[in-house]
Amino acid sequence: MTKPDVDVAIIGAGFGGLGAAIKLLQTGRNSFVVFERAEEVGGTWRENTYPGCACDVASHLYSFSFAPNPRWSRKFSPQSEILTYLKNCVEQYGLQKYIRYNTDIIRTEFLEDRALWQLTDRAGNVLTARVVVGATGPLNRPSVPKLKGADLFRGTMFHSANWDHTVDLAGKRVAVIGTGASAIQIVPEIAKIVRQLSVFQRTAPYVAPRLNQNYSPFWQGVYQRFPAVQKTHRSVLYWLNEFFGLSFLGNDTIHKLGTAKTRKHLEAAISDPELRRKITPDYKMGCKRVLVSDDYYPALTRPNVELVTDRIAELSATGIITSDGTERPVDVVIFSTGFVAADIISDLHITGLNGRNLFGEWFKTGPEAYMGMTASGFPNLVFLVGPNTGLGHNSIIHMIESQVTYLLDYLRLLDKAGEGAYLDVKPDVQRAYNDGIQEQLKGTVWASGCASWYISETGRNTTIWPALTVTYRKLTRRVKPEAYAVKKVVDRETVNEAIG
Ligand code: NAP
After folding, report:
1. 372 CA to middle of ligand 1, Å?
2. What phi and psi values does residue 322 have, to the nearest 5 degrees?
3. What is the pLDDT of residues 69-83, one digit of tens each?
4. One domain, residues 307 and 392
5. 181 lines ligand 1 (CB under 6 A)
6. Mutual orientation of helices 227-245 and 217-225 as an angle, nearest 10°?
7. Is residue 394 within 6 Å of ligand 1 at its C-beta?
8. Same domain for 22 and 36?
9. Could you tell me which residues come within 8 angstroms of residue 460 by beta carbon, excluding any fewer than 6 positions away?
10. 37 CA distance to ligand 1 middle (Å)
11. Are residue 244 and residue 322 in the same domain, yes or no?
């Protein structure tokens, strides 16, 4: 039996990949590599550098529980601070030597007769691993609408995730297309400097108060000296989110409270009845991600800002023409139109047992996995933030930590099965699990009828975890051995194994 080059190959050095790497080290596993296609870590927090970029989940919760940072400057810290936090984790846990930067894995193939994965990068280098951890994240493929006339437009265009910092927006006529999580952070920032800002809204978002606050040096000192206080703060943030999360899962009373809060927020900021009408959502709160901002609504009332709700018909050489025939001259178009998330499309090709192509299958059927982590026919492959593990109400880092716990137990099980073993989730187990997820989604706000990026081309919601995160944590504490077929390669022949 040939030994793999490494035990575990992690693809992606964002929160997921780094969290897994830290925990591998902490549990005495040092045979792993982290492949990162860019020249630094950070994932989405490296890529998104637009003005105002910050996390809309509180920083004390949007960070690893095992790597608390007492020095967060604000309740919702900016992108640069989150990126620094991740870089500090790399230093603090000695991860640098495990990360292979500028290495874009484009192919990973399961070699059944050797029970290992062969990974190939864009430069043609090959490495073998017993287990692959897919931690590429769901939000890394910017979605740019194909607008008629885009090739004629003579101004500048870019997506919010690829912000062009060489373009000076001061004094320019700018269009922001989209009013999602990124746009509502961008608009207040650039409205201060541009000459004219046209915000093109297709669907009005729900916006809740953000109430951002600075952590004073005093409190930072308290968190530093008394970790238990910081831990309690984190717990309070967590349980409040879980509580309000109930509103998305069918609790009408909390839902009504939340809806009233967002409405009050809107009405306090906007007095113009016409603008109020335009920005009042016409679907159930939570069906699309609820946004948090204190400065988005006020920005819309600035004299240099216009909220446009007429559909975009086309671009001309000098501006944007809406369906009513109006042309607005613009110098810069910023697409804040989100990401392709629900239909995992990737340059990465994953080939499993019998030549099966994972993303090809997912593209047809909609992505699905057991626990959002393992897919039948693709053994020894574990996804982080995979299908139906995204959240609308709490910190994704909590989900990642649950998944890493599961990964560690999965590795323990694999060790127990011995050299040459692989674990393949049983198809009927995966089916039953996903039928359960879809059934559970029926009673939630995400099934209330709006169009959102949570829904895949197949019409199924393939992104959202339809329950509280405590439930997911409980489910992922241990791997159920009976959910997996355990196989072993002996002398290049595959045999069934049983482990308890
Ligand atoms: P998004 O929330 O999906 O918003 C995209 C916006 O673009 C929506 O308003 C959408 O309108 C609009 N749009 C899309 N295609 C369009 C078209 N052809 N014409 C006109 N409008 C169009 O995207 P995002 O703002 O980039 O955020 C994506 C996700 O990233 C978020 O949901 C969140 O999970 C994450 N994010 C998180 C943070 C954070 O602080 N944690 C910050 C930014 C982003 P419709 O609503 O009508 O589709």
Report:
1. 23
2. -95, 170
3. 999 999 999 999 999
4. no
5. yes
6. 100
7. no
8. yes
9. 366, 438
10. 24
11. yes
